[in-house]
Design a protein that fits this description.
The structure holds 2 protein chains of 2 kinds. Chain A is built from 9 helices and 22 strands. Chain A is of the alpha+beta class. Chain A has 2 domains: about 200 residues, PmbA/TldD fold; about 230 residues, no CATH class. Chain A has a 6-stranded antiparallel sheet. In chain A, strands 11-10-9-14-21-20 form a 6-stranded mixed sheet, with no helix packed on it. Chain B has 9 helices and 26 strands. Classes of the chains: A alpha+beta, B alpha+beta.
Chain lengths: ~450, ~450
């Protein structure tokens, strides 16, 4: 399919690359404990980029049965308007082996998936609570090739099982959510962990505690860490560095964080949905240290940003069917090693035992709003627990936490023993000191 | 196309079947700093089938290859039969319509060359950059589309809609040493090329504000009387209340239904809230929703009392209420779910002005614009783009990092005064729910005064 297209590109432009992707998705929804709907999605599309007279253009289509001329014409029209860029597509090179396709996930029958959902509903049901379960299984094929000879082709599977339990008592609304995400079907251990996680969090939340107030030690769980990591994810993007807006832009080789803090992008992690042999621009995958011992070690680049920054792509180009490739992480690993968790049941991974007075943040409201890049955050809690004298004493409502990520990560009070994957991120709980906690 | 839909429906063996087919032409231009990021034109085509067989749940199928339509009708029926239900899904009655609803294209964007769209955006981006050296980065984007949407169901509805849309947005980043601030503006209409003209001033203002915020202090955290400008007032009512009024939140949950009992007092008599999918020219406006139900102006809160909610055919049947035309899908890739359209707090009738609202506030916050908002049922957070302190009845210094957090019930009840200066916010962006983002919606409000609200920021020592 894309071979013909690239042959046409060679005739009418200097260079180009294309991505073809076919996805088939099966989705199941259990609403309020009832199996409510089953769905399927088939989507095929092509994204094409051309370099003509030193200018770059892109075009995409889902009308893949149409003649390639129309797509190429649109890409050339886009290039005719494009600003000049010395974009070189990479030559052929060997790709690492990484398992992305799991037969069990690909071949699981509709009935097998329904049984997973029904068993979760049965195990999570309790009086006064509404249980929703969503299951999604995706099977995809990807083909990437360019006019310089690089080519990649792989199949991938992905499974997501999300459960949420909502409890409404008067005007008090409590929502507890967790998910399994992996390239293969969840096994019994993974499903047990999911049920345990939701049940434990729900039980702990039934008691409501008065929020503390002031500058306090706060434990951010693997889920709660989103607000803390988002500024880093934005700031380590080569694009932000190139634009001069990243606070980390001039810190390469400088210690910015606690010396125990590390952050790695790992596209080769087995069984993870962010893993792939090459990125969507055909650049081979490799592990990339971003922060080591608190020192900034690198930024992520795609082909375009690398060309503009006069460096090489780190293999972080992601493309959809429409629009041009952009920078995206594969799997992000927080911490120096990917320690298997020993404590997943109680939130905080053992860190709470050392706190006299503090908070465990599981989930915040409004993450990603506001001026994220600068590192400042201020969010009401969605789910948080009070810690007093080493014990969790209940759920905290009507409180907000605020601080600056770059200040807080200079000194980390501790790493939890609850490291886990959450989608494409692996992290343990982190204890941060001096987080502003306000209450109403 | 209509014949293809009729044939496919006739082949269905399910009790109820509906089909949507969409063809969308879009173009997009983006600048980052002085550089053009991309100028592209795209075509997106696909279909969606939903089937409901007797005693079964929903079977849904979406696809990009229209040749697969008959096969996908069969597949959706098969999936429906895999979902066994004790209590059947019922759909509230809606008279099936045959209609062609062609919205005013207001200068068909398909006839405008991409180069001209690039020139327009370049000028707007230039207006931000011209503000000065402190503006270190900008992002400007132009997006337009025209969608043809066919909808047909086995009850006899057959509707063709032509929907235009144009969205402009600008972000200016100002920096001085380690301080980085952002200004954000977006403009969106269910209109065409003409609506995108003459917007330089709005882009310039964004960059000027980002620069001004470099010198602004963070607001001191605490509780204050807060006055929301119409933009933030609109975001507030959408986030804090609108989502709870979506009937899919309550229809399967007895406790939630109790919390949202019609007739419950939600606010003072000055508070009137509604959702109007039939208002002309707004982004959330549609002649028919994605189940073929005509849209309407639905009252949600009248004189402080909860009087209505937003429905799909399924939620309306379940609660014994009438469909309101709020079943919407982001695209053919998604099933319709209950969504807002154009949600508003009605302007006050007492003739109050903004000056009247702040006159007796000794120390308060005037919160303006919106970076975003999120709700978690009864708790919400929204981030103002900027704010001012109110001191002794006057607007005083500019402040930043104004994040409002609160509890819905307490906050709505603390709205004691509403000015008469209602306006719709013609913004871009959109609403997210159930993985469907960004769905075009509009919000509107007058200036609104909340007697007491929690404002995040530095914690007082």
């Amino acid at each position: 399919m894309i071979a013909d297209l690239l042959a046409a590109v060679r005739r009418r432009a200097q260079a180009g690359d294309a991505l073809w992707r076919r996805e088939e998705r099966t989705t199941l929804a259990f609403e309020a404990g009832r199996f409510k709907s089953a769905g399927t999605t088939e989507e095929t599309g092509i994204n094409l980029r051309v370099v003509k007279d030193g200018q770059v253009g892109v075009a995409g289509t889902t009308a893949t049965d149409a003649a390639p001329d129309d797509l190429l014409a649109r890409a050339l029209a886009s290039a005719a308007l494009g600003e000049s860029l010395d974009l070189t597509v990479p030559p052929a090179s060997p790709l690492p082996h990484v398992p992305t396709y799991f037969e069990g996930a690909a071949n699981a029958s509709l009935n097998a998936l329904i049984e997973v959902g029904q068993s979760l509903v049965a195990r999570l049901s309790r009086d006064g609570c509404q249980v929703n379960v969503a299951i999604e299984r995706e099977v995809s094929e990807t083909e990437i090739a360019n006019t310089a000879g690089a080519a990649g082709k792989y199949r991938a599977t992905g499974v997501a099982v999300g459960v949420d339990v909502t409890r409404i008592a008067g005007d008090d609304v409590l929502m507890v959510y967790d998910q399994y995400v992996g390239a293969d079907l969840p096994g019994a251990a993974e499903l047990d962990a999911l049920v345990d996680s939701v049940t434990t969090r729900l039980d702990l939340a039934l008691t409501v505690a008065l929020p503390p107030e002031g500058a306090l030690p706060v434990i951010f769980t693997p889920v709660g860490l989103s607000a803390i990591l988002l500024p880093l994810e934005q700031g380590l993007s080569g694009k932000a560095v190139l634009q001069g807006v990243s606070p980390l832009g001039e810190k390469l080789g400088t210690r910015v964080f606690d010396e125990r803090f590390a952050l790695t992008d790992d596209p080769l992690a087995a069984g993870r949905i962010g893993s792939r042999p090459c990125d969507d621009e055909g650049v081979p995958s490799r592990r990339l240290p971003l922060v080591e011992h608190g020192v900034v070690r690198g930024f992520v680049y795609d082909l375009e940003t690398a060309a503009r920054a006069k460096t090489t792509s780190t293999g972080h180009g992601r493309r959809g069917i429409f629009g041009k490739p952009r920078i995206a992480y594969s799997n992000l690993v927080v911490g120096a090693d990917r320690k298997p968790s020993t404590e997943t049941r109680v939130p905080g991974g053992g860190l709470a035992a050392e706190l006299q007075n503090g908070l465990i943040v599981e989930d915040l409201i409004g993450v990603g709003q506001g001026n994220v890049m600068a590192g400042g955050f201020s969010h009401p809690v969605a789910l948080a627990y009070r810690v007093e004298r080493g014990e969790i004493t209940g759920r905290v409502k009507d409180a907000a936490v605020a601080g600056n990520v770059y200040e807080l990560l200079k000194k980390i009070g501790g790493f939890g023993s609850d490291g886990r994957w959450l989608g494409t991120r692996f992290a343990p709980s982190l204890l941060l000191e001096g987080v502003s906690v306000a209450r109403r | 196309m209509k014949d293809r839909l009729r044939d496919a429906l006739q082949s269905s063996r399910a009790d109820y079947t509906e089909i949507r087919v969409e063809r969308t032409w879009s173009s997009a231009v983006a600048f980052r700093g002085r550089r053009l990021e991309a100028a592209t034109a795209s075509e997106d085509v696909g279909g969606f089938v939903r089937a409901l067989d007797k005693g079964c749940g929903w079977g849904v199928a979406s696809f990009t290859s229209l040749d697969r339509l008959p096969a996908m009708v069969a597949r959706a029926t098969e999936l429906s039969r895999a979902v066994r239900l004790d209590e059947p899904i019922r759909l509230a009655e809606v008279a099936p319509r045959e209609a062609d609803a062609v919205l005013d294209l207001d200068g068909d964007v398909r006839g405008v060359p991409l180069a001209e769209k690039k020139r327009l955006l370049e000028a707007y981006n230039g207006a931000m950059l011209a503000v000065g050296d402190r503006v270190v980065d900008t992002q400007a984007s132009y997006h337009d589309e025209v969608s043809e949407v066919w909808y047909a169901n086995s009850e006899g509805a057959l509707i063709y809609q032509l929907r235009p849309e144009v969205v402009l947005s600008g972000t200016a980043i100002a920096r001085r040493d380690g301080v980085i601030e952002k200004g954000l503006e977006s403009i969106g209409y269910r209109k065409g090329w003409n609506a995108a003209q003459g917007r330089e001033a709005r882009f310039r203002t964004v960059a000027e504000r980002a620069v001004a915020l470099l010198d602004a202090p963070r607001v001191r955290g605490g509780t204050y009387p807060v006055v929301l400008d119409p933009e933030l007032g609109g975001v507030f009512i959408h986030e804090a209340f609108g989502h709870l009024s979506e009937a899919d939140f309550v229809y399967e949950n007895p406790q939630a239904r109790e919390m949202m009992t019609l007739g419950r007092r939600f606010g003072k008599p000055v508070l009137n809230v509604g959702d109007n999918g039939a208002a002309p020219g707004l982004r959330g406006t549609l002649p028919f929703d994605d189940e073929g139900t005509p849209t309407q102006d639905t009252a949600l809160i009248k004189d402080g009392i909860l009087v209505g909610r937003l429905h799909s055919r399924e939620t309306a049947a379940r609660l014994g209420e009438r469909p309101t035309g709020n079943a919407r899908a982001l695209s053919f890739r998604h099933a319709p779910i209950v969504r807002m359209t154009n949600t508003y707090i009605a302007g006050g009738t007492g003739g109050s002005t903004f000056a009247d609202l702040i006159r007796d506030i000794k120390l308060g916050v005037y919160a303006c614009g919106a970076f975003g908002g999120q709700t978690l049922l009864e708790n919400f957070s929204f981030t103002a783009a900027y704010g001012y302190m109110i001191r002794d009845g006057q607007v005083a210094e500019l402040v930043k990092d104004v994040v409002l957090a609160g509890n819905l019930f307490q906050t709505l009840d603390r709205i004691e005064r509403v000015a008469g200066d209602f306006q719709w916010n013609q913004m871009g962006g959109g609403c997210g729910k159930g993985g469907q983002f960004p769905l075009p919606v509009t919000e509107g409000a007058p200036h609104v005064r909340i007697e007491e609200a929690l404002v995040g920021g530095d914690v007082p020592a």
